[in-house]
Amino acid sequence: MKLIPRIVVGALGALMGVAAVSSAFAQTSRAYDQNTPKTRAEVKADLVEWRKAGYDPLDWINYPANAIAAGRIVAQHRAQAQGTQQ
Question: Would the pTM of this model clear 0.85, i.e. be above it?
Answer without folding.
Answer: no
